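Tutorial, part two.
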Amino acid sequence: MPVQMPVPMPARDFSTLGRAVTKHLPAPFWTKDAEGRYTGVNDYFTRVFGFDVAGAVIGKTDEELVEAATVDLLIDEFDGVLPNETFKSIWGRLRDNDIIVQESGEPTQFLERIFLRDEKRVIPVNAIKAPYMGGTVGIAVFGNLDEGGITLDLIRDDDEMSIGTSDDTDAEAVRIESLGRAAAQGGAFLLWTKDANGRYTALNDFYLDYVGADDESDVLGKTDLDIVAVAAPDGIDDYEGLLPGETSTSIANSWSEDDLRVIESNETLRVIERDFNDGRVFDVISIKAPFAGGTVGIAIPVDASDASDVVNAVDVDA
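Running the prediction step on this input gives:
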């Protein structure tokens, strides 16, 4: 009897998440090595710090990045500066938090401070950092979309931002693949893309584990109503934090309604949505943007007390 050879699984395609995160996501996203040097950044990150190409950031530490971005600028010229705050204190805190994550080996949510170079403002952000390939992977979400005045400037008529790694298209393809892999396998936040009909086209591993799905096939092509049926097959009636009249169906419908607002307006939406996990219902900051006729979105907990449980609810491979 002939021996049945196992059928090899097709290599995972990171191109959808990679292009969404790199070219369309209106939130800074990055990877760093063990010494704190940037190994990858998305276009939004590049624009926030006033660089023309992502390659200008690669290889720099936070100290070097801040120095390059603020050359000939004084922090006194920036709005929103706290008493005794300096550029050095800003980049120092960023590095300190990276070290906390590397030493603990656990994803952690921080309240950090960053500056918008062209707008000359210093603002607070919710940052989630996780161990990744000996270093870290991180994302920062504005607490208020008004803080990200550059957001709509990044939505191009051709639905594609113009920033690249360099003029080398091969290098740009590598950047998109690398950031897509980091977001898919290392990101300790919910990340997804959907088509115009609200059906999921890609999700990161954190999202899959978050809803209890075994693999992408359990989720791809499904709607929000399908997703909550997987995540809470018995409903959420006994969940802590449930509001009067709130159900898993009403929560899923609100997600879909927000997606539709983004598609119809072709503009980025920052909204507080409701989500549930591990027997609790809580608020999350969601940012959604137009992508490939549908949407790309991320969500992180509003409250760090929720985040302490949520970001550690799944195993993130270092």
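Confidence is low (pLDDT under 50) at residues 145-161, 305-318. In part three we will examine how such features are distributed along the chain.
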